[in-house]
Amino acid sequence: MELLPKDSLEQIRNARSLVFLTGAGISHESGIPTFRGEGGLWKNFKAEDLATPKAFQNNPELVWEWYDFRREICKNANPNPGHLTIAKWQKKSNFVSLITQNVDGLHPRSGSPSLLELHGNIFRARCTKCSEKFHLVDDGLDHSGLKYCKYCESLLRPDIVWFGEEYDQNLLTKSWELCKQSQVVFVIGTSANVSVPANLALTAIRNGALGIEINPEETNLTLSMKHHFGGKSGEVLPKIWNELFPNESLE
Ligand code: NAD
Ligand code: ZN
């Protein structure tokens, strides 16, 4: 059975700017727990109790322990057909942009040539004093527990945008521009509880983009979308690709 009607297929094929907005759900099939779904709790802590500046101030060991644990999961996970379809699409057309809330590094590992990581990256740390950034694996800091700056010896923190923190202005401006101009927006695996990503999607829709949501559940954004596919992104995205580009295999 066809997923998309003919007019939407045409609209997507003819679009000259397309944006993918992804959240934790796209990595769920790779075995990475979402915060709110099953497996989201860690030692009875909620993410909201750990991913905050206050939590880090009170107990940096505990916060690092949680990120070290999550980083190991990300290292051992592999991109799934959802990530791979987006990467292939970006390589095929240079007007396909990707904005993610994920910090797991699976989009770059799937070969995506360009990516805006709104919430940071779990493989990076940042100095609490001099703001220097480090790649935990490449810089030899990929051990458990507290980590210190090679330059000023101050404590490092995960290079993640925590609850209540400001976004990187540069990334945000680029993301607004892309969404304003987009003719098609795919919103994938995000509960749309965080207001910035939800507003990015709405900005695209209000500026005339065709909205397509892929999420097993309905969200606050569902009613604003032209299409909602209530399935897993690793299954729905390859099907959409095959409908759009029947002569171009995903393999
Ligand atoms: P979220 O709010 O983005 O919600 C996850 C959504 O994914 C839910 O709506 C769920 O229905 C949907 N989903 C589940 N399985 C799916 C699938 N197979 N295909 C498509 N959709 C699916 O995520 P959250 O877990 O509540 O996290 C909120 C914040 O925490 C995000 O900003 C994110 O950056 C961060 N986070 C990141 C990761 C990661 O990098 N993988 C993991 C957990 C949390
Ligand atoms: Zn420093």
Short description:
By secondary structure, the chain is an alpha/beta fold. It is built from 9 helices and 9 strands. The strands form 2 sheets. Strands 3-2-1-7-8-9 form a 6-stranded parallel beta sheet, sandwiched between helices. Strands 5-4-6 form a 3-stranded antiparallel beta sheet.
Question: Rg to the nearest angstrom?
Answer: 19 Å
Mean pLDDT reading:
96
- Percent range for β-strand residues: 15-25%
Query: H/E element string?
Result: HEHHHHEHEEEEHEHEEH
Largest sheet: 6 strands, parallel
Under CATH, the topology of the largest domain can be stated as Rossmann fold
CATH top level of the largest domain? Alpha Beta
Number of strands: 9
Q: Name the CATH superfamily classification of the largest domain.
A: TPP-binding domain
Give the class from helix and strand content and strand pairing.
Answer: alpha/beta
Each distinct ligand: nicotinamide-adenine-dinucleotide, zinc ion
What's the architecture of the largest domain in CATH terms?
Answer: 3-Layer(aba) Sandwich
Shape: elongated
Spatial sequence of strands, sheet with the most strands: 3-2-1-7-8-9
Describe, in plain words, how this protein is organized in 3D:
It is a single chain. The chain has 9 helices and 9 strands. By secondary structure, the protein is an alpha/beta fold. The chain has 2 domains: 1-31 and 79-119 and 167-251, Rossmann fold (3-Layer(aba) Sandwich); 33-76 and 122-160, SIR2/SIRT2 'Small Domain'. The chain has a 6-stranded parallel beta sheet with strand order 3-2-1-7-8-9, with helices on both faces. Strands 5-4-6 form a 3-stranded antiparallel beta sheet. The two termini are 22 Å apart. The structure holds nicotinamide-adenine-dinucleotide (NAD) and zinc ion (ZN). Nicotinamide-adenine-dinucleotide is lined by residues 23-29, 32, 34-37, 101-104, 119, 188-191, 193-194, 214-217, 219, 232-233.
